[in-house]
Amino acid sequence: MVEALTIVLGVGVVRGWRSPLIGVTAATVTLAVLVAALGPALQVVPIETLRLVVGALLLVFGLQWLRKAILRASGYVALHDEDEAFRRERDQAATASSERRAGLDWYAFTVAYKGVLLEGLEVVFIVISFGSAQGRLGLAAAGAAAALVLVTVAGLLVRGPLERVPENAIKFAVGLLLTSFGCFWGAEGAGISWPGDELSLLVLIGSLGLASYLLVRLLRRQRLELLASGAEA
Amino acid sequence: MRYLRSFAGFWWDFIVGDDWRVAAGLALALGLTSVLTHKGVDAWWLLPLAVVVLLAGSLRRATRGAGDR
Prior knowledge:
Chain A is built from eight helices and two strands; from the N terminus they run ααααββαααα. Chain A is an all-alpha fold. At the A-B interface, helix 3, helix 7 and helix 8 of A face helix 2 and helix 3 of B.
């Protein structure tokens, strides 16, 4: 959501707010339609099958986030710089063509629409996964809507990209939670009964968190050794 | 055809991501958990173990290039 805000701000500051805001609204409506269509459709799938599929998808998705967050925390991949992304978006918006379609600045509309839609798909995926596996789609959607309002209000208040948000720490935590819930539901869908029932979810989060922390430490040390050996050579 | 390919490519990137081996390994681990459970083995430990091994392996592959440069 922070990345989507940066894209919209970068375009809006240079080309005016009307077309990007219409793009944001159109993308939000598309995402809401996706949740409204997919959510009830998933309720007819048996819960065991649903948990297996949702668990597998959450695992694949969560491990992507966790992997990226570990690579960033250990210094192998540069941290995402919202200020730099904002400047890049603003510069591209300043030099792009000013074609008009349907009364809109087409560049500003499509960039805002695509930015919000692509970033929002991740949110929709999480909302549908958690909401359908627990039978609480409305609550999951309300949580996502609250986060959207929070990010929008924060963006309006600071009138700029949210570069001080500890983005990698948030992605680390989200990756950890997605992977742990994916593991829990995926294994339940495959037929196992967890020892300690739902308490084992806390053990999963703790163990995976510890393993991730150790991997960050290990990779950091490995990287420093590489840098030191490179400096000596 | 081009649109179909880019549509499929988008969903592949979105779900599978940078390392297809992780997705394949998870599918294998889930399948194995299911088979073992239906044979009466209490295999709750298999998936968490597979997750840690797959994550470590993927990170190793991602950082190995840095040492070669």
